[in-house]
Write a structure and sequence with these properties.
Five copies of one chain form a homopentamer.
Chain A lengths: L1 E10 L2 E2 L8 E7 L5 E10 L8 E6 L16 E6 L2 E4 L2 E5 L5
Parallel strand pairs in A: 4-6
Antiparallel strand pairs in A: 1-3, 1-5, 3-4, 5-6, 7-8
């Protein structure tokens, strides 16, 4: 999985029929020190994430293993909202302390 | 999924038999501020997209989950035409206002 | 799919039994203006391509969706020979006019 | 597979139901001379790895071929803990001699 | 497939049970002129390759299409040993002439 931050939303009225009802987010990749990287994906949401949250997303066929994305033409899915990240023994991210 | 812009078309008369009837587009990757990137793919179209449109495409086995691409040797499919993109609270793209 | 040019051939007598009979080509990635990129793959051929031709190749599990590659340990297949490429309204490649 | 080092942990209370019980690690890619690279993934653990260990991780659908990850939305799994690496005839890593 | 050179071996006693009996090699990517690239993978061996040999490896789910790797958490497999490479009309590699 990749570590990312939900930075925006996508609205698409004309889309494959199997995409109906899926929320699509712009997710920017993060570095290990939580800086935004140059890369991003558009990911479906299976966990009720919101803009600004730090999340994990899965890619490829693994993105179709959630109840929401099964059998759909979706190659990236947000499957977890990150509470805490520890690198070495340092807590580098805590959702409840981050502004 | 990746965010891209349809920039051209591919004509191929000699191709795998399973590709018959599929429209193939050149799709250039876009950055979050809608600038063209150096990367592009050739994607099949499942939504009736046209040159100049901003789209989403799915890659890998997920590209075979549409009715048009099922079971075909296709690793990228346009599965949505983008109407609007919002980054943070700013509307960075609106199909109906873009030229 | 990726746009590439067949630049060479691979001979391998010792190989997985499922590869018997497959022709393997060196395919260099091309940019949108048909320049050779630094990246290349070794792809199986399902369309009778030859050295020098501009082709499309599919990667990953999609590379196993042709009759020739089904069930084989092959992650890239040439599935179309390009006749024409149009970017915007300009014809940037025409097989029958290219040298 | 990629060679990596377990550098941290991820805590996520809100996640896809199929992720329950999986341990998620931050794994930094290593170069052939065991230096940390700029790239990292979040991988599930199928072998009882710990922070600081040099491991192998598998990506994509192959990450779902362990008993722990089967059918789950997981695209990277630690499937081996490295004891020794030999490059040419030189032993470049020995778990039992590394600090 | 990618062109690579077997540059070393990996020993891992603690690993997913499905990996038992597989030989794991360090394989460095090669450029078209047979120079070592900065990228490498750890690949299972299905053809009896040895250190120093120029090989092809397949990635992703295609890496599980050999008898040795079927159903295993393996995302890269050496599936051919290269005898000769021809680029244009020049023989750029010949196993039996390479030192």
């Amino acid at each position: 999985m990749k570590l990312g931050k939900v930075v925006g939303t996508v609205v698409a009225s004309r889309k494959d029929e199997k995409l109906e009802g899926l929320r699509l987010y712009l997710v920017q990749d993060l570095s290990l020190d939580l800086k935004g990287r140059d890369a991003f994906v558009v990911a479906a949401d299976s966990v009720g994430a919101g803009v600004g949250e730090v999340v994990l997303y899965a890619s490829g066929s693994s993105a179709r293993q959630t109840r929401d994305t099964d059998g759909r033409p979706v190659d990236a899915v947000i499957m977890a909202i990150v509470d805490q990240l520890e690198v070495g023994k340092a807590l580098v991210f805590d959702k409840f302390k981050a502004g």
